[in-house]
Structures are given as structure tokens and as C-alpha cells.
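User: Can you write out an input/output pair for a complex, sequences first and structure second?

Assistant: Here is one pair. Inputs:
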Amino acid sequence: GAVVSQHPSWVICKSGTSVKIECRSLDFQATTMFWYRQFPKQSLMLMATSNEGSKATYEQGVEKDKFLINHASLTLSTLTVTSAHPEDSSFYICSAPTPTDLSEAFFGQGTRLTVV
Amino acid sequence: GQNIDQPTEMTATEGAIVQINCTYQTSGFNGLFWYQQHAGEAPTFLSYNVLDGLEEKGRFSSFLSRSKGYSYLLLKELQMKDSASYLCAALDSNYQLIWGAGTKLIIKP
């Protein structure tokens, strides 16, 4: 079945640095990918929708300049957390709907970001 | 606005049956998903319903009533490993998932 691979699974970085998270669709082309953030004991919160070849669509309250999204190819979307702060520590997950079968929305493994 | 409601927490006994309910209000509707999420892990797909009725898959079944904006996930022969959060999500007219807050299911021996 379709697989979405997310890397890294976890990362610890210093406050003020930037971190890049990659999301790849391994055996299908993903024109759209969704990026979510999940704080402990809370539901997934959609941050942005990444569209191949065009600008990402950000949800209200999500800073575009802080969370940079690039979807340069049909199999890769990246989320860069710039100038990270401890409050950005969270679980970040990407997902990609398959183009022909809506019965599953495939998720990456998730990335646990800790900013110290 | 768009909204998904499901209970915050439920407790059940190993070997028993539990039903987790979900009601939704969305702009358009293209199906309803149930996901299982263990702490610290990404959600894993359990079921997808777009037509009214019951879909059975092993110990898990999912039901949908579009006219009532209602779904439930039924778990039979509960095992300790079923302790997890269960997320209900509806696909709206833009094919975007609208998520519930999740139901934490606690299984007791």
C-alpha cells in the first residue's frame, strides 16, 4: 500500500536554530500534503496544506515566515521551523491523500521536536 | 462552523465490547475516518465510511448515518493493547480532514 515516510523521527535543537522536516510519498505522487501539529493530550491541529508547485495554504494563526513549507516535487514536501523556540516543541505529522483512493489518508511517522 | 464531537474518555473491561460515538457537522461531506493513536505515535488508519451502514473489519466495526451526522466505532473482544486514543475525522467538501479531539480508551483487566 501507499506509504508516507517522514524524517527525522525526533530532533532536539537549540533555541534560535532552524529544523527541517521531510515528508516523502514513496510509491505515489502527492500533489497535496497536510502538515499537522499535536501538543500532548490534544488533537491534531492542521497547520498548512502544501501544494506541489505553488504556495502553501496556512491555517489562521500559523506564522508563514516561521513555518516554511516547500513542495518542490510530487513526492517531497518539507516543513522548516525557523528560529525555533521552546514553545515550538511538539509532535509534527504530515499526511498525504492518495490520488485515486480516498479510503485512506496516509500519515508519516511523525517528528517529535524538542527545542532547548 | 465545522465541528466534530466525541467523548473525551471511556473505560472498558478486557474481553468486553465498547462503542465510541462521533457526531459531525461539516461543509460538505466526503466520508468519515476512524484512526487509532498510541501515545507518542502517529495515527494509524482503522476505517473509512462514506455510505450509510455498518462496515466490519475483524474485531473493529464502523457505522455511519449521513442523515444524522453520526458515526460509531465498535470494538469487540477488547484487548489490553487496544488502550489508545481513537480519533474521528470527517472529510469535508475540500477533501480536508476535520478532526475530533479523540477519545482516550482505557482497558482494565
